Each structure stands twice: as structure tokens, then as C-alpha cells.
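re: ur question from yesterday

yeah so i grabbed the chain u mentioned. its 246 aa long if i counted rite. heres the sequnce exactly as i have it in my notes:
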Amino acid sequence: MAKARKVPAIIDNPMGFCPGCGHGIVIRLIGECLEELGQDKNVIFGIGVGCSSLLGGGLDTDRLHCSHGRVGAVATAMKRVNPENIVIAYQGDGDAFSIGIGETTSAAYRNEKFTAIIINNTNYGMTGGQMSNTTMPGQKTSTSIYGRDCTVTGMPIKFPELVASQFNPAYAARGSVHNPAHINKLKGYIKNALEAQINGEGYSVVEVLSPCPTNWGKTATDSMTRIVEELIPYFPLGEFKTREAK
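ran it thru and got these C-alpha cells back, copy pasting raw so excuse formatting
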């Protein structure tokens, strides 16, 4: 009989994410990577507003809930003041790419030496499912009731590609939680991003495609299917900037 895997020690309380949400998977992976790298007692989280806010209540670690969209700026200050600590900006796509696009982009542009983990579920998950800068063309949300019109709002942003092509980050990748194989790949991306920070290589970012059954109006299974059939063709998975120093 297979031995059950131990829950990372920093995850000390249940978190109230909706059934079928991918946040819990990502948080588990972050905890595992921090333990394996010996950094679980040396980490500070900057937490965005939104579904990501629920992270704080389940962690036995230093953390700060930031003003909406300002995690990039707060994480910059955290890392500059405490360069020996691992600093993780944990945000959703609305917090990072919509209201926080200035702070997020500026931190990447300056090559700040922290790690951003950004959950892309194509909407503002906690506040009613409003359109974000990653909402897909034609996707209906509470603020795009007829479907997103990209001739008016622009196309969904591809942040890791932007960072990798225009700036000089240490690492940029996009993963997904839609099946076990990709969850394992995602863990490798997260570990690479954290190792880049440990070695002082510069800014590292991992975007994660995550299901939102509640606001998508789908079952958990159908939400995973949507990731495969609709999101991945537009938001390709993989590493867009690999680490030069190993």
C-alpha cells in the first residue's frame, strides 16, 4: 500500500476555496517545494486581494495581505529590506494583470529578485466573476454579459511571454493543474522559480491555468476540459525564459 504524502508543515489550516478550484493544488506544490529546498521557515508571502486572500488563513508563515493589485510593489520592498528571505507574491490574474498591471510589470521590468505565482482563472473569482485582462474572447462574465468583445477591451494578456521577450527575467513559465502529469510539471516550474530567487538570479514568475467552476458555471470535470480545449491553445504551457545559472 502506497504511503500517504505528508502535508507540508506550513499548511496548518483548511482553506475555504470553492470545490474544484485549483488554488489548493498550487499552494500544496509551493509548500512542497519550499520544504524540499529547505526554505519553508524562511519565506514571506505577499498576498493579493481575491481568491488568493484565502491563502493567508491556512499558512503558518510570515505573510502580508496587500492592497488590491499592489503585491508587486510590496514584494519589492520585502525583498530589498530582507534580501535573505524568500519572498513570494501570490496573486490572481485580476489582482496581478488588471488592477495591478503597473506594479506587476514594473517589478518584472526592474528584475526584482522575488518570485511571483499568478493564478489565471480568466476572471475576478472572489468578487463575482467580473472580466479580467485574461478573460477569453467571447467569454461571458458579470461585466461582459454578452461575451468579451476584444475589439473594445483588447486581447487577453500573455504575461510570461511579455516578460520573457521584453525584459530580462531569471525565469518565466506557465503551467496548469488540469491533470496529474501537468501538476508534476508545474511543480518543476515552481521549484525552478524559487531556485532562481535563492541564487539571486533575478525576477521569476510562474502563471498557472486554474479552473473556476463557480464563476464559469461548469462542473469541476468540465472546467478541466475547458482548460484543455480553450485556454491552452491561447495560453501555451511551458518555459518561456529558462534559467542561465543552475
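noticed a couple things. Residues 23-241 form a domain with the Rossmann fold fold (CATH 3.40.50.970). also The radius of gyration is 17 Å.
anyway ttyl
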